[in-house]
Design a protein that fits this description.
Structural class of chain A: alpha+beta
Shape of chain A: globular
Largest sheet of chain A: 14 strands, antiparallel
Number of domains of chain A: 1
Oligomer: heterodimer
Distance between the termini of chain B: 53 Å
Radius of gyration of chain A: 22 Å
CATH topology of chain A: outer membrane lipoprotein receptor (LolB), chain A
Number of strands of chain A: 14
Number of helices of chain B: 1
Largest sheet of chain B: 18 strands, antiparallel, barrel
Number of helices of chain A: 5
Structural class of chain B: mainly beta
Largest interface: A-B, 44 and 54 residues
CATH class of chain A: Mainly Beta
Order of helices and strands of chain B: HEEEEEEEEEEEEEEEEEEEEEEE
Shape of chain B: globular
Order of helices and strands of chain A: HHEEEEEEHEEEHEEEEEH
């Protein structure tokens, strides 16, 4: 009996120690560790779906855009194809970007009126994308903060409804990056379960609050978390962009020639289009 | 004789009927789609009205209403059909342009002085992986520069509005076949247009009818009564255009070489064989075939794109000054163009181009400068979250000191309605490319509803 009590005490001690250790490891993550966890968040090799933009100005007037989005991730190259389906005036306009880690980035645009695929200069990451409140950098970063761009720090952790959230803050590593990104800082609340931001607040290069990105819905597609509903509010312009992704699918075998400049002139890839869109 | 006449009538009727059926089919299916919303058919309708007032006297000189439809049938993964039609109505000094340069198969279905109904595109396309075959009325847009035609001379274009079109050049589709394929990194593009349609000009007396003597064979058409006769266009091999282009990646860019033979974009003027006494002289316009060999290269370097094109025409037909008027000769012509696109700070987009057009005609006295140096400069930026686009461009000939300055605002009122306004301010000597129209400097407005 005496040994039994001793055994229980030792077991309890071990349990307390292991919980304490686990707790310590959770709280001892550095800002860089959190940023790395976000960067290393799993990403599908190729996915396709519809992207719907709703842009609202301060008077409440709305403009809407819909596009087929094809995204492909290769070891040294990220390819994004955007094929507009609505409104009618933009239909068949297509945009393709190849972000290369070891060579020049390449962009192409197909305008049906010109009948020609045209090379575009790479936009600055701080330039706004197609009249939305998202910058090209925001689109390419996919809710990640590039380790080579930012210096990170951590704010106080938050526990809400039993879930742990990190508050990650960042400032650009130098003045050039600041100018290029168009941001002087960000503060983001990170869900420790998914390593996905819940929201991101950016300040402009003069450190004045600029915009807030709010993730409104996440869906797990083929083991990868994807933000399927989010909004961006530019407080300086009182302008909001709401983005909804629908019919997102993981593509196991994306045809190799699909995301190429030559294909752009043929319009949205028919094989990926769903009826009714 | 009766049989021949009957055959001719049948042929003509068949051609008209064929054209009518295709146009009506396009319009009907466009309408049917909007009613039944068939999922594999998409149609875009566009209603456009535009007018302009002369900057000097505020007269309304241009007023055009147009309706266009673009219908696409996605038959399967590999097959699609496209049918585009346009109806235009105008009651102004600009007009709808000449149609005597159209081949019978391409002629408008309806053609009145103020109303015209045309089939813009009508083709069926098969494609699989990097291979495609397109049969029907289509365009072949080659070249990499922006609106400056160095190697981009395969298609005829519309010149009724001079160069004041939303898209430059405004191509005219022709009946033919195009085959594109890829072998390794080589891309081969071959095109054959059996349709003899040539560039559309402004009607004589219209606002943008060319009067500069470089285009009129040296004849002063403003002071000399002239009747213009056009060579009949048909669908024969003799008036066809055939060409091929091969492309390959080079460094960070793409290089292409091309060659084609077909009717020239500009006419040669000659005296008609029959001249009536005591009436205006009859001048015949001919579009002789010539061969163009060319090369193009474009490359992205960060926030800039560099483009260059080179074209050589060994048999360029031109009018020359000789003992008798309206004589012509074949000479060598060399065209070179350079362009740069720059994604500038503060979200400005800058495009600058330089083109040199040289005629090697030492043995002849020609009616244009040996060398024209043309520049185009464009700056544009979006404002109000992309609702407002400001665009300004300068086009001009440096050696002749003529040109046009074109500031323009485009406001996206809603997803469907765009409002546009701008100024075309022309300057230069009255006998130059741009200067000949300097009295037509204008303020213009346009509203386009697309659904």
């Amino acid at each position: 009996m005496k040994y039994a009590y001793l055994w229980i005490n030792i077991s309890l001690l071990c349990l307390i120690l292991s919980v304490a250790k686990a707790s310590e490891s959770a709280t001892s993550l550095s800002a860089l560790d959190v940023a790395k966890n976000i960067v290393n968040r799993s990403a599908s090799k190729a996915r396709v779906g519809y992207m719907h933009f709703i842009m609202r100005n301060k008077s409440g007037s709305e403009r809407k855009r819909s596009a087929l989005l094809v995204h492909s991730q290769e070891p040294a190259k990220t390819k994004i194809g955007i094929y507009f389906t609505k409104p009618a005036g933009l239909q068949d306009t297509s945009f393709l970007s190849h972000d290369n880690s070891d060579s020049q980035d390449q962009n192409w645009l197909y305008l049906p009126a010109t009948d020609r695929v045209r090379k575009l200069p790479a936009s600055s990451r701080g330039d706004y994308f197609m009249g939305t409140d998202l910058s090209y950098g925001d689109i390419k970063d996919n809710f990640k903060f590039a380790l080579e761009d930012w210096n990170f720090s951590l704010g106080e952790q938050q526990i809400q409804n039993g879930k742990r959230y990190y508050i990650l803050q960042g400032t650009p590593q130098n003045a050039d990056i600041k100018q290029e990104l168009g941001y002087a800082s960000f503060t983001s609340k990170i869900d420790a379960d998914t390593w996905f931001p819940v929201n991101i607040r950016y300040t402009d290069i003069d450190n004045v609050p600029l915009k807030e990105v709010s993730i409104l819905a996440l869906d797990k597609i083929a083991g990868t978390w994807i933000a399927t509903h989010f909004s961006v509010f530019n407080s300086q312009l009182s302008h909001q962009t709401e983005i909804v992704l629908s019919d997102m699918q993981y593509l196991a075998n994306l045809p190799g020639n699909l995301l190429t400049a030559d294909e752009l002139a043929y319009g949205a890839p028919l094989m990926l289009l769903n009826e009714g869109e | 004789m009766q049989l021949t006449l009957a055959t001719m009538l049948t042929k003509r009727t068949n051609k008209n009927l064929q054209h009518a059926i295709l146009t009506m089919l396009s319009l009907y299916l466009s309408f049917a789609n909007s009613v039944y919303a068939a999922s594999n058919v998409s149609t875009i309708w566009s209603i456009d009205y535009r007018f302009s007032t002369n900057l000097r006297d505020s007269d309304v000189e241009f007023s055009r209403f147009s309706i266009t439809s673009e219908t696409r049938f996605n038959l399967s993964r590999n097959w699609r059909i496209q049918l585009d039609a346009r109806a235009e109505f105008s009651d102004d000094d600009v007009g709808l342009g000449t149609i005597n340069g159209y081949s019978p198969l391409s002629r408008p279905l309806i053609d009145n002085k103020q109303t015209r109904l045309e089939l813009d595109r009508a083709f069926i396309q098969w494609r699989k992986r990097a291979h495609s075959v397109t049969l029907g009325k289509q365009v072949t847009p080659w070249g990499v520069l922006d609106g400056v035609q160095i190697t981009d001379r395969f298609d005829p274009v519309r010149r009724r509005d001079f160069i004041f079109t939303d898209v430059r050049p405004e191509r005219i589709a022709r009946w033919g076949a195009r085959w594109r394929n890829k072998i390794g990194n080589f891309k081969l593009d071959t095109s054959f247009a059996f349709d003899g349609t040539i560039t559309q000009q402004a009607q004589p007396g219209a606002l943008f009818f060319t009067t500069s003597t470089r285009f009129t064979g040296g004849v002063d058409v403003t002071n000399t009564p002239v009747n213009l006769n056009s060579q009949n266009r048909n669908n024969s091999l003799a008036q066809s255009t055939f060409g091929a282009r091969i492309s390959h990646p080079l460094g960070q860019g793409d290089i292409s070489f091309l060659g084609f033979r077909g009717p020239d974009t500009d006419p040669i003027l000659g005296l008609a064989d029959h001249q009536p006494i005591d009436e205006a002289i009859v001048v015949q316009t001919n579009y002789q075939r010539r061969t163009l060999y060319g090369a193009a290269y474009d490359v992205t370097l960060g926030e800039t794109v560099l483009r260059t094109e080179l074209a050589f025409i060994p048999d360029q037909p031109i009018n020359i000054q000789w003992e008798t008027p309206l004589q012509s000769a074949d000479v060598r012509r060399l065209l070179v163009g350079f362009g740069i696109d720059w994604s500038a700070p503060e979200q400005w987009f800058i495009n600058a181009q330089l083109a040199i057009d040289h005629i090697d005609a030492q043995e002849f006295d020609i009616l244009r400068p040996d060398t024209d140096t043309i520049i185009t400069l464009r700056a544009q930026r979006l404002f109000i979250n992309g609702r407002l686009l400001f665009k300004a461009e300068l086009l001009g000939t440096i050696n002749q000191r003529d040109g046009v300055l074109r500031p323009e605002l485009i406001y996206e009122y809603s997803d469907k309605l765009k409002l546009r306004s701008g100024i075309d301010w022309l300057f230069g000597d009255k006998n130059t490319q741009f200067g000949q129209f300097k009295d037509n400097s204008r303020l213009w407005f346009a509203a386009t509803y697309t659904f």
